[in-house]
Amino acid sequence: MIMRAFVCGARNLGEALRRIAxxxxxxRTKGRSGFRQRVEAVRxxxxxxxxxxxxxxxxxxxxxxxxxxxxxxxxxxxxxxxRGSSRCDFSAGGIATPAxxxxxxxxxxEAVLSVPGFSNRAIRRRARRPS
Length: 131
Prior knowledge:
The chain has helices at about 15-20, 35-55, 60-70, 75-85, 100-105, 120-130, and strands at about 5-10, 25-30, 90. It is mainly alpha-helical.
């Protein structure tokens, strides 16, 4: 068990809940700055939110089956089914503009991590620049 709080990336609810069980303080959707990665961040946010909504309509026996399919702890699955959301904030990685942030907030992100101007292209440019 990890004793420090950490942030991790997830593509779906199963990944997110496994990381929460390991001690994650916040889940962020997978994605890096850049156009293609924004699409991934939005796709993963939609997947996680829709999977959480689906849990709220299930009976207990269905929750047990879903926990097995997702590979997630049953107790966390039951908590989400009762509350309709997880116990930790969701943050979307790969978001670079205010419009991106507004979109993922509308999709269900409670927090948004945005680091504009920090991309692989910028890093490569700085690395080539003479000192």
